[in-house]
Write a structure and sequence with these properties.
Elements lengths: L17 E6 L4 E4 L1 H6 L7 E3 H5 L4 H17 L3 E8 L4 E8 L8 E12 L2 H14 L3 E6 L4 E4 L1 H7 L3 H4 L14 H14 L1 E9 L5 E12 L5 E9 L23 H13 L5 E12 L5 H13 L6 E6 L2 E9 L2 H16 L11 E9 L7 H13 L8 E4 L2 H22 L4 E9 L4 E10 L10 H10 L3 H22 L6 E5 L11 H11 L7 E5 L2 H4 L2 H13 L3 E7 L6 H4 L6 E4 L1 H4 L7 H15 L3 E5 L4 H9 L4 E3 L9 H5 L16 H4 L2 H4 L6 E3 L4 H11 L3 E6 L2 E7 H7 L11 H5 L5 H4 L4 E5 L4 H10 L4 E5 L5 E5 L1 H14 L1
Parallel strand pairs: 15-16, 18-19, 19-20, 20-21, 21-22, 22-23, 23-24, 25-26, 28-29
Antiparallel strand pairs: 1-2, 1-6, 2-3, 4-5, 5-6, 7-8, 7-11, 9-10, 10-11, 12-14, 12-15, 13-14, 17-18, 17-24, 26-27, 29-30
Helix pairs in contact: 14-15, 20-29
Bound molecules: ligand C2E and magnesium ion (2 copies).
């Protein structure tokens, strides 16, 4: 912030808030004479709105108009601080717009000039001063890269005087260290992204090469021309270092030498907590450009500083670097940490890959795996580096071969997958999802497949994880989605069912917020001719919980286009049932780990049960993944799962395999396994004889009836219709506790004369005889005390169903399996 001379910002004296009113019908402003003269019209009584508006600056005027419109719409007043230009002064003013009747045409308010503001001239001079005095080096060039304006700092850094630069091409500053294509790419990048950040080398008038860091910004002007603004500062490396390879100067680049590095390592070793380990990496690099050793040291230290986690860098000898990191004692984070280190050291991050990228060869040693002490760590990592060959790409060698093997597998798969993707040599398999009530295919899940040429045994899941780690997953998802959308009509035709839908997976990785994959999905879906109401997008929980606002926006857009959203692999993340209500999903897919080997006694059974109840309550559907056995199918159907996807119906298959098998798309052979709750209607399972009682009967009679029929509920009937349910517990609560005790008195006996209608419950649900059991089963599960009353066409009560009636029927079937 710049502190401006007080005198320029005097308070406006003797100016109390002045009332004004605007008549929108005739576009006039009515106000006090004092305000009129302050605005520069001392002789007028009234102003047109345009005269008033002329005192405002464009953006603030827009805001004022917006505020007036808002106040008219809501009737609620507003305040605005603004700059007002009059012919004499510029002021800072507070405008107040009063409350008013909605949509009225008379807007009223007040205005107070609080401070004098800079005149246009003063403002311009200020900005000029700011620009020229800034310690950042500024340069503005036109669309042809000719220099238009430079500031003093820019002249200081480059050694040129202002007049030597103006009108000259910006290439006058080229360092000669980069190829032509470097600059071509750079400008292309700026034109496309409007801004580029990074370091560059440039040359002063005296021919010295220097490094500077900053941004180049493209600013599009209103007249469709544009300019480039470069703002940078010189990096703290003295210029002579670029020319001499004097190793004594290394200390200026701040890379500790071997001895200091070992002391640092020692220190970290002593402070290490029991759950952590140290990885030591020794590396050298091959640059694509020839750079002096010192330039290289500088570059490596700059890149190392960009790592988002802590590490320590050292110099083992003039061309070998070492670094160490403290990480948790697990194998996976080690490889991931090192991958990131290599990636950053290569200079492969977006803004910096132009011309200065490097191949890194590294040797790695891990404390407690192959080394016991700091010195051993360093020496093992050096050995691992020396013993291995330099390849045409970056490579990592572990001292312990077991680690190399472990990560080699991943790297081999990654390389093969990359090749397969480059050639688009991938396939999509389709697995049916079957609706339980009709045992009919309702949709197919599209699953990625790649046939890699290797003996390594790998799973799709593993490839997907690699693709996620290497950021190739978007490409896979786009290819799979595009292909599956093309195939859907063929599947529909094969099954003679144009309602068959498609379910696709989308990995949502939070590293890629700038590039929203859900946005891509929507684009691909919109371009296809498929009815989007038939499409489901399967997302895992991370899509909802990490940066939920951002993803929520796109999820809602997808939903607005008719796409259903499914929560995939439920139960494997940190999902909790209570979260489910908040998620915008209509389908929950229970992970295979809950379904495999399901038994009625298991915790998984209870979880699925609860999940079904909750999901149904919020109007969603449940798919169980990975059902393989008949027992699993039976239990899942009894729990009220809506759809099943699993080997019991079919494995994922190629389109060709599916089309070559004639089918109806139904699996009626499993009918007998289905829980009756799903297969039957109310009439089939209702109890026809049930103990009844009348509304006017006394509780005394009810008690006799409970004992006689050995039941806990009586159905209250009047004119053959159900009026309520009488629960034994409610009766006990209504009669005196002294009955049948020594203290029994007359008034206690009287409580037995109370009438049934006084204590009966209305908690019953009427259904017709052909209502499928699955319609009321979830409600019964939720409220086990409720009774389902089955009524005939004339409303007469013909039967009742309690939860236990359904459960008994189910266990009968179970024992038959
Ligand atoms: P998912 O989305 O949960 O897909 C279901 C997985 O369960 C599939 O494995 C399927 O073959 C398997 N499966 C289905 N029924 C059974 C069964 O009865 N028994 C057994 N043992 N397995 C069954 P797949 O095809 O290997 O895919 C694994 C995972 O990889 C998928 O899990 C999904 O998370 C991911 N994936 C697959 N294709 C894609 C894709 O195109 N894009 C993305 N982002 N992820 C994908
Ligand atoms: Mg899935
Ligand atoms: Mg799944």
């Amino acid at each position: 912030m710049m502190v401006v001379d007080d005198v320029l910002f005097q308070k406006v004296k003797d100016f109390s808030p002045q009332p004004w009113s605007i008549d929108l019908d005739n576009q006039r402003l009515n106000c006090s004479r004092q305000l009129m003269s302050a605005l520069g019209y001392p002789k007028q009584n009234m102003l047109t709105l345009s005269q008033l508006y002329a005192a405002f600056e464009t953006q603030q005027l827009q805001l004022l108009k917006q505020h007036i419109a808002e106040v008219r719409e809501t009737g609620i007043g507003l305040n605005q601080t603004t700059v007002i230009n009059t012919y004499k002064h510029r002021y800072i003013a507070e405008i107040m717009i009063c409350d008013m009747p909605k949509n009225g045409s008379m807007v009223k308010g007040s205005i107070q000039f609080t401070q004098y503001f800079l005149t246009k001239q003063q403002e311009l001079e200020f900005l000029k001063k700011l620009f020229s005095k800034s310690s950042e080096a500024f340069m503005i060039a036109d669309a042809n890269h000719s220099i238009l304006i430079v500031n003093q700092a820019f002249c200081d850094v480059t050694g040129y005087a202002e007049h030597e630069l103006l009108g000259k091409p910006a290439s006058i500053l080229k360092s000669g260290r980069y190829t032509f294509s470097f600059y071509e790419k750079l400008w292309q990048y700026v034109d496309e992204h409007k801004i580029w950040f990074g370091e560059r080398l440039a040359k002063t008038k005296q021919g010295e090469i220097f490094a500077h860091e900053g941004r180049i910004q493209r600013i599009d002007l209103e007249d469709s021309s544009h300019v480039y603004v470069s703002a940078s500062h010189k990096l703290d490396v003295s210029t002579h270092m670029w020319q001499h390879d004097n190793l004594e100067e290394v200390s200026k680049v701040h890379i500790p030498d071997k001895q200091s590095f070992i002391s640092l390592l020692d220190e970290s070793f002593k402070q290490l907590s029991h759950d952590m380990t140290i990885i030591c990496i020794t590396f050298d690099l091959q640059m694509l450009q020839t750079l002096s050793k010192l330039t290289q040291h500088w570059l490596i230290s700059q890149r190392f500083a960009r790592l988002t986690f802590t590490g320590h860098l050292g110099l083992v000898n003039e061309s070998m670097y070492a670094a160490y990191f403290v990480v948790s004692k697990q194998v996976e984070p080690i490889d991931q940490t090192l991958k990131k280190v290599i990636f950053v050291l290569e200079g492969n991050d977006e803004s910096n890959n132009m011309g200065l990228s490097a191949n890194i060869t590294a040797g790695v040693s891990v404390l407690y795996i192959d080394a016991k002490s700091p010195t051993q760590l360093l020496s093992h990592s050096v050995q691992a580096l020396i013993a291995n060959s330099r390849l045409a790409k970056s490579s990592l060698y572990y001292f312990d071969r077991r680690l190399t093997k472990r990560f080699d597998r991943k790297n081999t798969l990654a390389t093969l997958l990359k090749q397969a993707l480059a050639k688009k040599n991938i396939a999509v398999y389709y697995q049916p999802i079957v609706d339980i009530s009709e045992l009919k295919i309702v949709k197919f899940e599209a699953l990625f497949r790649a046939q890699l040429e290797t003996d390594i045994n790998y799973s799709t899941q593993e490839l997907i994880e690699i693709a996620e780690e290497f950021n190739w997953i978007d490409k896979i998802d786009d290819l799979v989605t595009t292909q599956a959308l093309k195939v859907l009509p063929l599947l529909q035709k094969h099954y003679a069912n144009d309602q068959i839908g498609l379910s696709i997976n989308r990995s949502v990785n939070n590293d890629r917020i700038a590039h929203c994959c859900l946005e891509d999905t929507l684009k691909i879906l919109e371009q296809s001719k498929v009815d989007l109401n038939l499409v489901t997008l399967e997302l895992t929980e991370s899509a909802y919980f990490e940066d939920s606002n951002y993803h929520a926006k796109w999820i809602n857009k997808l939903k607005a286009h008719g796409v259903s959203i499914a929560l995939d692999d439920f139960g494997t993340g940190f999902s909790s049932l209570s979260y489910l209500r908040q998620l915008p999903v209509s389908i929950v897919k229970i992970d295979r780990s809950f379904v495999s080997g399901l038994t009625k006694q298991s915790n998984e059974y209870e979880m699925i049960n609860m999940l079904c109840r909750l999901t149904h309550k919020i109007g969603g559907k449940i798919i169980a993944e990975g059902a393989e056995t008949e027992q699993e199918l039976h239990l899942l159907s009894s729990l009220g799962v809506d759809m099943i996807q699993g080997y019991i119906f079919d494995k994922p298959k190629s389109l060709q395999d599916i089309l070559s098998t004639p089918t109806h798309g139904t699996f009626l052979q499993f009918q007998t396994l289905l829980s009756r709750a799903n297969a039957e209607n109310a009439q089939a399972i209702m109890r026809r004889d049930f103990p009844k009682i009348s509304t006017d009967d006394k509780l005394k009679k009810a008690l006799e009836s409970f004992t006689k029929h050995k039941v806990k509920q009586l159905i209250v009937i009047e004119h053959s219709q159900c009026r309520g349910i009488l629960h034994i517990c409610d009766v006990n609560a209504a009669i005196s506790p002294y009955l049948n005790t020594k203290g029994e008195q007359h008034r206690d006996l009287v409580t037995l004369n109370k009438r049934v209608h006084q204590v009966m419950s209305k908690n019953f649900l009427e259904v017709s005889m052909d209502t499928p059991v699955k319609h009321f089963y979830p409600k019964l599960i939720e409220d086990p005390d409720m009774v389902v009353v089955v009524v005939g066409s004339s409303g007469v009560c013909v039967g009742v169903i309690a939860l236990k009636d359904i459960l008994i029927q189910q266990s009968e079937i179970l024992t038959c399996i």
